[in-house]
């Protein structure tokens, strides 16, 4: 089926583009959603008008959402999940889960269809893209760890993993300060004992 897009469609094309798509995709999604029309000779005459209007609308949206894209870029979302020995989850982390968590973090309505990722079914670190507009697609990191593991402290309160690393480094730096006096004492004791042996 040949259609002309009347709105931007992520990973397909921009408004005014003529595309050949699967019949089912065209009939069941693009046409009913008002994203495209059949590429008839009459429709094709309006290509320039549609492109011009879409360009204006796209520029406005990009300007409006530029700040939000900056906020979202690099956000780290952490999920705890039950998983088997191999790291396979009992269930999955869906686009809806990610959209809800992101919305909570940035205080802006994010819909699940804006999250570009496959459902996550294993423990680990993953990336997902958030489609704000055709041009603004910030990337976020999704970390899934086993329930009850130490990583839980990492972003339980929504703090990025980087902060956790900094905290861990701070603890490591402080530890020797506490331990040093103990080592000094043991060395002094050893030295005293050695001198006593020599005197005898």
Keywords:
Ribosomal Protein L9, domain 1, 200 residues, Ribosomal Protein L9, domain 2, alpha+beta, 6 helices
List the helices and strands and how they pair.
Layout: E1 2-5, E2 18-20, H1 23-30, E3 36-38, H2 41-44, H3 47-72, E4 76-81, E5 88-93, H4 95-106, E6 115-116, E7 120-122, E8 124-130, E9 139-146, H5 152-155, H6 161-199
Parallel strand pairs: 4-9
Antiparallel strand pairs: 1-2, 1-3, 5-7, 6-8, 8-9
Describe the protein in words.
The chain is of the alpha+beta class. Among the domains are: 2-45, Ribosomal protein L9, N-terminal domain (Ribosomal Protein L9, domain 1), CATH 3.40.5.10; 71-162, Ribosomal protein L9, C-terminal domain (Ribosomal Protein L9, domain 2). Helices cover 46% and strands 21% of the residues. Strands 4-9-8-6 form a 4-stranded mixed beta sheet. It has a 3-stranded antiparallel beta sheet with strand order 2-1-3, with no helix packed on it. Residues 152-200 have low confidence and may be disordered.
Helix/strand-derived class? alpha+beta
- N-to-C CA distance: 104 Å
State the share of residues found in helices, binned by percent.
Answer: 40-55%
> Multimeric state of these chains?
single chain
- What name does the CATH topology of the domain at 71-162 carry? Ribosomal Protein L9, domain 2
Brief summary of the model shown:
The chain has helices at residues 23-30, 41-44, 47-72, 95-106, 152-155, 161-199; strands spanning 2-5, 18-20, 36-38, 76-81, 88-93, 115-116, 120-122, 124-130, 139-146.
């Amino acid at each position: 089926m040949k259609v002309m897009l009347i709105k931007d469609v992520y990973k397909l094309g921009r408004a005014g583009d003529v595309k050949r798509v699967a019949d089912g995709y065209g009939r069941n999604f693009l046409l009913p959603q008002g994203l495209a029309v059949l590429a008839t000779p009459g429709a094709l005459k309006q290509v320039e008008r549609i492109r011009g209007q879409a360009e204006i609308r796209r520029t406005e949206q990009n300007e409006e959402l530029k700040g939000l894209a900056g906020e979202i870029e690099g956000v780290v979302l952490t999920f705890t999940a039950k998983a088997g020995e191999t790291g396979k989850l009992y269930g999955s982390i869906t686009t809806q889960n990610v959209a809800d968590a992101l919305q909570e973090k940035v205080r802006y309505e994010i819909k699940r269809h804006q999250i570009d990722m496959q459902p996550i079914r294993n423990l680990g670190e993953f990336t997902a893209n958030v489609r704000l507009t055709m041009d603004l697609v910030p990337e976020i990191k999704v970390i899934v760890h086993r329930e009850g593991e130490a990583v839980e402290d990492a972003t339980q309160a929504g703090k990025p993993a980087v902060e956790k690393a900094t905290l861990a480094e701070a603890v490591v730096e402080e530890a020797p300060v506490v331990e040093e006096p103990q080592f000094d004492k043991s060395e002094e004791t050893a030295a005293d004992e050695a001198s006593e042996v020599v005197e005898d």
